[in-house]
Amino acid sequence: MVKLRLKRCGRKQRAVYRIVAIDVRSRREGKDLRKVGFYDPMKNQTYLNVPVILYFLEKGAQPTGTVQNLLKKAGVFKEFPSNQMKFN
């Protein structure tokens, strides 16, 4: 199963996160399938590659709680049919 999750980057006390599509069994810093965006909590900036995110969601990828909140704020789920959403 594939998840959309945050991958920590940056330096100490200055975290920046990449939003990646990654296999569930991989650890947080493991090899990702594809980078789909980034999130900087200090500057409150996000960049999302929406077509790729929608592709992974259609294929059954599950976003983690934090990534799901970021996608809701960006309005990604408005473009995704609501009957296909299956979150835990």
TrEMBL record:
<dbReference type="GO" id="GO:0032543">
    <property type="term" value="P:mitochondrial translation"/>
</dbReference>
<keyword id="KW-0687">Ribonucleoprotein</keyword>
<protein>
    <recommendedName>
        <fullName>30S ribosomal protein S16, chloroplastic</fullName>
    </recommendedName>
</protein>
<dbReference type="GO" id="GO:0003735">
    <property type="term" value="F:structural constituent of ribosome"/>
</dbReference>
<dbReference type="GO" id="GO:0009507">
    <property type="term" value="C:chloroplast"/>
</dbReference>
<keyword id="KW-0689">Ribosomal protein</keyword>
<keyword id="KW-0934">Plastid</keyword>
<dbReference type="Pfam" id="PF00886">
    <property type="entry name" value="Ribosomal_S16"/>
</dbReference>
<dbReference type="GO" id="GO:0015935">
    <property type="term" value="C:small ribosomal subunit"/>
</dbReference>
<keyword id="KW-0150">Chloroplast</keyword>
<dbReference type="InterPro" id="IPR020592">
    <property type="entry name" value="Ribosomal_bS16_CS"/>
</dbReference>
<comment type="similarity">
    <text>Belongs to the bacterial ribosomal protein bS16 family.</text>
</comment>
<dbReference type="InterPro" id="IPR023803">
    <property type="entry name" value="Ribosomal_bS16_dom_sf"/>
</dbReference>
<dbReference type="GO" id="GO:0005739">
    <property type="term" value="C:mitochondrion"/>
</dbReference>
<dbReference type="InterPro" id="IPR000307">
    <property type="entry name" value="Ribosomal_bS16"/>
</dbReference>
